[in-house]
Amino acid sequence: MSVSREGSRTKPSWMNGFLAMVKYEILWNIRKKKFLGVLIVAFALATLSLAGGYIFSSITGQPMEPKPDFVVNSNLGLIGFAFLLFAIVTVMNSISGEFESGSIVPLLAKPISRTTVFMGKLFAAFLTLVTTYAFLAIYLSIGGVIIYGPQNNLHLVTLSLIGGILSTLVWVAIVLFFGSVFKSSLIAALGTFGIWLGANIIGGILSVLSAQGWILTYIPGGGTSGSVEGTATTQPFLGAVATGTDNIGPNFINYILHPSWEVTFYKFSFGQGMNGLTREPLYSMPLSVVLLQSIIVALAYFIVFALIAWYAFKRAQITE
Which of 145, 153, 179, 309 could form a disulfide with 188 if both were Cys (CB 3.0 to 4.6 A apart)? Predict the structure, then answer.
């Protein structure tokens, strides 16, 4: 171990301090049963996704049919709110909890910098998400084969895992931002939920009724929806595609399977046409651009909010 001396104190190397911080955070999460809670939530959501076919079959009386693309289309069995939920559960009190409990004082008395503390906590959250989503991918793959029969393109489930982590890290950074700035776990949770709720309410209106739905591409969340049109003589509708940071996984997989897809976005109007609802095409873009935009937006939000959270933590005043 490389060390440097400042007076009589021995300071560990950055890597040793970082690993010690990661271990501290993971053990703390285990003691507080936070990690167990995340796995339970993941198991419940995945089970609900797997059971959806049985529930529908029992309600309608229709027999179960094979779904060879169930796993690859499931996005780990998660919807937008689940990414927010995992972020809140994982890091809601990672920073703020230290201030609330007073444990920040002995923690910062250790011979490691605040930057090392922050990075260790962030990396521990990343490891928690990787473990959780890997569990989801394996559980859904096995369950999908058992319930819905042989599955296509199971090798692409890894892309769902990568996309899910990127989607969640956006909200992780926002939770850390509120926790570091306000030093309150409650504000960290409610503030992030408020952003998610506002984005979804405003997004639902803009994406359907306004020609300004493109704005949602640059807001964390579900984004705006478009469709991929086929030919009128063969298959007029090929699939739906959504922008936004919550849809990186599905867009990853669709791009691998259909690299030539062109996504068209529409504006819907009421009170016109025979059915009282018409749609007007606004613009089109390749699926590759949709995917690239969602990744860049996710990374930008993560970097910006994580940097602000780090700066607020680094400058926070500690009162014993």
Answer: 179
This prediction has a pTM of 0.87
pLDDT in tens, 59-69: 777 777 888 99
Q: Taking the domains of the chain in order of start, what are their residue ranges?
A: 13-315
- Point out which residues pair with 240 in neighbouring strands: 227
- For residues 97-126, b (16+ Cβ closer than 10 Å) or e, as one string? bbbeeeebeeeeeeebebebbbbbbbbbbb
Contacts of 305 (CB under 8 A, 6+ apart): 170, 173, 174, 176, 177
DSSP per-residue string spanning 254-287: HHHH-TT-EEEEEEEEES-STTSEEEEEEEEEEH
CA distance linking residue 143 with residue 149, whole number of Å: 9
**What is the three-class DSSP state of 152?**
coil
